[in-house]
Write a structure and sequence with these properties.
By secondary structure, this protein is mostly helical. The chain contains ten helices and two strands; from the N terminus they run H-H-H-H-H-H-H-H-E-E-H-H.
Amino acid sequence: MGAQTSKVARKLPTKPRPETLSNVPKESPSTLGSAFSAASESKTDFIEEDSRDPHLDENLRTLGPVTIQPTVTKMRASDTMLGIINKRRQEEKREVKGLTVSDGLISVDSLFSLLEQRKRMNPGEINKPEIRQAILKKYEIDEPTLSTLLKYYNTMAIMPPSIDDKEERRMGAWVSDKKDWEAQVKTVDERNKAIKKARQEAMKDNNRASKPKDSEQDQKLKDLFDEGY
């Protein structure tokens, strides 16, 4: 038993199978060399010919030229969105036109310009007939509307910051003319000067209080020298 092999020897076929003979490749790497050499960065005649689809070309020739009819979307004249768009266009044209008023409306820019102009006038200048007429013509408003605007509406006049405010906020004030504006600015400046002066005096008092007092002997020497002079 020890002399015999434990495995059966494998017997290899001596003849090829019939299916292997029917699937023999017709091309070899040497014959495919010309096809691989046809690769190029630009389209050559070989690439164009290879990429064509004969069935697609035949179908396209059968169809012939195709005419595409233009599509027109009809919108209803009573559409709500169209009304909003038209209204918006009218408002934009009105704003581009300039600082004018129409249909009883005044733009924010026009109102701001009018009130800022009033703040920079001298006292009583806004009531002069020629100035009044110029404003009415420029902004296309009537006299009652102008009087109402000047009485109940105004833009803020920004004051200088107070030095005792850590956040350095700037307060807004109602001013009626240029002189009133300057007076309120002057009031804030005077208040800041008074606060600054009070702080300086307080610092001097603190320095005098923190200064050490002379001893009795030093005081006698100082008095002696003072008497000598």
